[in-house]
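Exam revision sheet. Question 4 asks you to relate a sequence to its structure. Input first:
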Amino acid sequence: MFRRGNKDEYEGWWEAVDGSPSPDLHGKIEWEPSADGGTEIDLLVSKLGVPDGAEVDVVCEGNVLLRAPVTGGKARHIIKSSEGHTVPDLAGKTVELRYGSTVLATTVLEPD
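Answer key, C-alpha cells:
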C-alpha cells in the first residue's frame, strides 16, 4: 500500500478542452509504482460523449500510451510495466485524452 502524498505517485484530473464533444467528462489518470515493483498508469473517466464500443486514447508527447474501450459512457484501463507494457515516466507531464484525432481533455500529472 502507498501513502497519500507519496512523491512517487502522480495524478491529473481531466479538464475538457473548449469545443470538446464531452464537456461534462469527469475523471483522472494516475502514474504510480505498482505493488509488483514496476510502474502503472490507471485511467478512469466517465461522462464521455462518445459511442459505446469506441475507444479513447491517452497521448503524451505524440505517443499513444494506452487505448481504452468505452462502455456506458465510461472508460477504465490499467497498464503495468510488469505485464510488458511501456509505462513512461509521466511526472509533471501534460497528457491528452483523445477520441480519434479529437482531443477531449487534457491534464498535467502532479504529485498526489
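Marking note for examiners. Strands lie at 10-13, 15-16, 26-33, 39-46, 55-60, 63-69, 75-80, 94-99, 102-108, 110-111.
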